[in-house]
Amino acid sequence: MNFRIILSGKTGFLLLLIFLAASLTHKSSAGESGDGPAMLIRADDMGMSHGQNQAFRKLIETGMPLSVSVMFACPWWKQAVEILEEHPDVSVGVHLTLNAEWKHYRWGPVLGRSAVPSLVNDQGYFFPSRALLYDNDPQLDEIEAELRAQVQRAVDTGLQIDYLDYHMGAAVETPETRAVVEQIAADYDLAISRWFGEDYSNITYSAPIGSKTDSLVSRINRLDSDAVNLQVVHIAPEQSDMNDLIDLNEFGLSDMAGHRYHELQALLSPEFREALEQNQVRLVTYRDVVREMGLDSMERPEIYKD
User: Fold this and answer.
1) Buried b (16+ CB within 10 A) or exposed e, 21-55
2) What is the mean pLDDT of residues 32-56?
3) Whole-angstrom distance, CA of residue 274 vs CA of residue 278
4) What is the pLDDT of residue 62?
5) Distance CA 180, CA 171 (A)
6) Cα–Cα dist 168/184, whole Å
7) What's residue 191's pLDDT?
8) Would you say 29 and 45 are in contact if contact means Cβ atoms under 8 Å apart?
9) What is the DSSP letter of 117?
10) Do 97 and 181 contact (CB within 8 A), yes or no?
11) How far apart are CA 256 and CA 265, in angstroms?
12) Would you say residue 12 lies in a domain?
């Protein structure tokens, strides 16, 4: 489907849904059809916490076409499912999880620590970083078993699952694990994020707190008309359990809650809506991409080629 954004005052989206005049391909036909570039918003980490879920609810209720990546290994995944059951148009992905990065708030494998001992620390939690995980010599069969368990948990909810992606990149760290993810995707007839030649950006993640909206608008003003433009975002409400979380990794952002709240505000801002309208941006989801391009069009991106 093609989604033309029509500005409706200062609040909310009015979305007129019309069929695509031409299929989405690696070389987008947007320019030929007179439409603007295609943009796919992938919002990561739903199910991680109650606060995260409330931010997702707020964003979803705008009606904006979204691809939402759920962490089915995290404590709040069931609440995420309840929210998504109310919004079947949202494209749902499994955020394959092999890390738990927060101080005082940890999680472990769906299969339990005894089933996949090489994936966890001595307390049974996932390691906070890719480096620590792979320093522990994780066994490939255990990685595959755990990732399959997460996907099966997602499928068993009854939600339509459209795609896979990977929390902190851990599940695609090596050629062997990439092959595992590709095989799981094939077995479940799922897409893999970034395997469609997307023009990837997470520019709003590390942008200064006061510049999130400007960075997002800047991105929209220079979208590639010859690709699906993937914008990855991380969101949180202003006051929630996120405010008490501290990243255990040195490379983590300070005031993570503030960063995520302002990413949400950027997506809800009139400046964002106006930029979409001015650039005639077509918001699409992974469900749309799969429908128009087909799973057979997937190819491992250059960044992950062996």
Assistant:
1) eeebeeebbbeeeebbbbbbbbbbbbbbbebbbbb
2) 88
3) 6
4) 97
5) 9
6) 18
7) 99
8) no
9) G
10) no
11) 14
12) yes
Question: Rounded to two decimals, what is the model's pTM?
Answer: 0.88
- Asked if residue 58 is part of any domain, the answer here is yes
The DSSP line for 165-197 is EEGGGGGGSSHHHHHHHHHHHHHHT-EETTTT-
pLDDT in tens, 167-216: 999 999 999 999 999 999 999 999 999 999 999 999 999 899 999 999 99
**Strand pairing report for 102-103 and 246-247:** antiparallel
Q: How many domains does the chain have?
A: 1
Residue 78's contacts (CB-CB under 8 Å, 6 or more residues apart) are none
Residue 183 falls inside a structural domain: no
What residue numbers bound the domain in which 253 lies? 2-93+146-167+194-300
Q: How confident is the model at residue 280 (pLDDT cuts 50, 70, 90)?
A: very high
- Residue 8: what pLDDT? 37
- What is the domain-level CATH number for residue 234? 3.20.20.370
Structural domain contains residue 189 = no
Q: Report the residue count for the chain.
A: 306
Of 129, 118, 130, give the one whose Cα is nearest residue 173: 130
Mean residue pLDDT of the chain comes to: 89
Place of tokens 């809800």: 268
Is 5 a residue whose pLDDT tops 60? no
What is d(CA 98, CA 1) in angstroms, rounded to the nearest whole number?
34
* Distance, CA of 138 to CA of 119 (rounded, Å): 6
